[in-house]
């Protein structure tokens, strides 16, 4: 490995779990560590690409030389992706995007009162970023999505690939405690539009990122 398979390409990577604010001191998020997306950014850079990493808050340090765009919410992420996608050749959407966001964000801290033994939080669907990307995608651009599933991993992955007009979907089973969210290892199945699927062995996210980048390079051919 180590060939400059993405030399001259511009690659946009998203990583981490989005934060949906309820009030100035609280937010909803998920278990994503950002490790998979950061590993993809590093691997793409090693393959010669110019990399932009749009990242939700994580504990990780971005690879040197990568342009970092920090975001918090799904709305921020949507804006950053849609703004930068046209100038990139590939988008790898590894961020764990919230499915729902609060309908309203309180500008002051939400208080307990004697009257509110129950507190009802109203959520609405977040914008589907990859669906919006599909609408502006050119034939020369490659898009890759991730699917974290707990059941029917392949069937759900194939549905996502179609509905989001992706060139590749990376499906992983997050119901398994030994892989996925937070860990350093993963096992994924690459799903392609022609119905081809390819399951990796259980290995480090760094190795999976290199295989993914190699596959992205193939998709340009
Ligand atoms: O539908 P689901 O969230 O499982 O799809 C996963 C893929 O779609 C991931 O690549 C994720 O980054 C992306 N996504 C998105 N916009 C959303 C939710 C997920 O682009 N609102």
UniProtKB/TrEMBL annotation:
Name the Gene Ontology biological process terms.
coenzyme A biosynthetic process; pantothenate catabolic process
In this chain the DNA/pantothenate metabolism flavoprotein C-terminal domain maps to 6-218
- Which region ranges are annotated with the description Phosphopantothenate--cysteine ligase? 11-221
Q: Where along the chain is CTP bound?
A: 99, 109, 127-130, 146, 160, 164
Record has Metal-binding as a keyword: yes
Cofactors (names):
Mg(2+); FMN
- One of the record's GO cellular component terms: phosphopantothenoylcysteine decarboxylase complex
| GO MF term (any one) | phosphopantothenate--cysteine ligase activity
Pathway field of the UniProt record reads: Cofactor biosynthesis; coenzyme A biosynthesis; CoA from (R)-pantothenate: step 2/5; Cofactor biosynthesis; coenzyme A biosynthesis; CoA from (R)-pantothenate: step 3/5
According to UniProt, the reaction catalysed is: (R)-4'-phosphopantothenate + L-cysteine + CTP = N-[(R)-4-phosphopantothenoyl]-L-cysteine + CMP + diphosphate + H(+); N-[(R)-4-phosphopantothenoyl]-L-cysteine + H(+) = (R)-4'-phosphopantetheine + CO2
**EC number, UniProt record:** 4.1.1.36, 6.3.2.5
User: Would you say which domain of life the source belongs to?
Assistant: Bacteria
Task: Outline what the protein does.
Answer: Catalyzes two sequential steps in the biosynthesis of coenzyme A. In the first step cysteine is conjugated to 4'-phosphopantothenate to form 4-phosphopantothenoylcysteine. In the second step the latter compound is decarboxylated to form 4'-phosphopantotheine.
Q: What is this protein called?
A: Coenzyme A biosynthesis bifunctional protein CoaBC
* UniProt organism field: Levilactobacillus koreensis
Tell me what gene encodes this. Answer: coaBC
Q: Which residues of the full protein are shown?
A: 183 to 403 of 403
């Amino acid at each position: 490995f180590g060939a400059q398979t993405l030399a001259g390409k511009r690659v946009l990577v998203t990583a981490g779990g989005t934060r949906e604010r309820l009030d100035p001191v609280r937010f909803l998020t998920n278990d994503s560590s950002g490790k998979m997306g950061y590993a993809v950014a590093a691997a793409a850079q090693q393959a010669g690409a110019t990399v932009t990493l749009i990242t939700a808050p994580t504990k990780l340090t971005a690879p040197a030389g990568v342009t970092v765009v920090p975001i918090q919410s799904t709305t921020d992420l949507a804006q950053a992706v849609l703004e930068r996608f046209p100038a990139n050749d590939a988008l790898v959407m590894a961020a764990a995007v919230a499915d729902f966001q609060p309908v309203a964000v309180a500008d002051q801290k939400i208080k307990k009162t004697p009257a509110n033994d129950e507190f009802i939080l109203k959520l609405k669907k977040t914008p589907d970023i990859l669906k919006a990307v599909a609408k502006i995608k050119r034939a020369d651009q490659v898009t890759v999505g991730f699917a974290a599933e707990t059941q029917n991993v392949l069937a759900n992955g194939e549905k996502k690939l179609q509905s989001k007009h992706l060139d590749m979907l990376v499906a992983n089973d997050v119901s398994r405690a030994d892989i996925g969210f937070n860990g350093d290892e993963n096992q994924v199945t690459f799903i392609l539009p022609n119905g081809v699927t390819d399951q990796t062995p259980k290995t480090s996210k760094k190795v999976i990122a290199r295989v993914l980048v190699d596959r992205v390079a193939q998709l340009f051919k």
